[in-house]
Amino acid sequence: MGIKEMIKKPRKINMLIRKGVLDLDWRLLLVIVPLSFLLFVFLPSIPINSVFPLRSFLFNRSKYSSGHSAKADQLHQSRIAVCLVGGARRFELTGPSIVEKVLKEYPNADLFLHSPMDRNAFKLSLLKTAPRVASVRIFEQKFVPQTEEQFRVLTAANSPNGIQGLLQYFKLVQGCLSMIESHQKQHNFTYDWIVRTRVDGYWNAPLHPRHFVEGKYTVPSGSVYGGLNDRLGIGDFHTSKIALSRLSLIPKLDSAGYRQLNSESAFKAQLTTQNISYVENRLPFCVVTDRTYEFPPAHLGVPVAALSSRGPLSGAKCRPCTPVCKDLCVANVMSSLDKRWSWTDWGNGTLELCNAHGNWENGWEKIFDKVSGKKLAAQRRRVKGLKFEQCVGDFRKMKQKAVMWDAPAAEDICRLGMGMTKRLFF
Known about the structure:
This protein has 426 residues and is α/β, with parallel strands linked by helices. It contains 15 helices and twelve strands. The chain is 43% helix and 12% strand.
């Protein structure tokens, strides 16, 4: 249809505009309506090749929005398990972000918590605000005997607690899978999706539906350490079962001839030997760490991101700090790192770095509160000032939500966390 014909048929044009507006994301109406009016008034003077790019932008944006909405709707009707594993050292910082950006983002998801009993476990009471709690296991960590196969396949190099540290971590992960399988068997169904994440992960944005990829296992990009980033994973039940079987698949890796693997390279070997396809995406979380690292990092060193970094940080190590390295400094530092090791995405100002050679700086609390916002800051302060009775009450509320509860008494967890006792009796 030419411009003259369009001007002669205003009724038809009006119908087309109305149909387009109805199909678009409602948030664009404030932009679209004035633009439509201007186009109609000034169309005779606008070259035709200027009209089509705008039309393409509007309708492509509508297509993206409707696709995202459809995927989100599908996920909200799916059975999702969130497997949360690890120790609760800084859970007053990370826990509320997990609740807000993951659990409440998918309120139909069932939470499975697998965490060791220690003086920080009382902070797990923050999960009382989780929409759904399926299973909780807080356990006394014990030595994991090492087999000959594990000795051959795994290496203690770069593991802060040696091979025993790897085995404890693998046991945490696979233990969460066992909890999920038990729940499925008890209730006679299978989860459509399993999200496996860490207790020490801080999320600065919601978990997006695009990371749920049919037939593939989603892992964070960067921080691969010679294999695949194993700090988070998302997949259907089949791919997740392979990914979470960190201990039971070691004999198969041994038979395949794998030797001296760290956690990340063993994880990659698990997926590849079992023919599991994977996709590496940027995800909006980082791992809060108290460990110290040299700055600036060497070629195989570990960069520590400032919690204020825009990200997504894809599970990179982080802490609340005053950034000492931005922009060109970040470019110089990150360009010197080995992409097959500790490197992570840093372009477009998404990363700022801390000098993490020492302890957390004085005033880190104010930095965290400013970065995280009022809601998460209030949760941090609440944990800091938590009273014994409040702690016990929070755990009781959490237990009321849970289908399965395997943990010491709330009083024991809270006493240990508040320094009221040095020994637990199970």
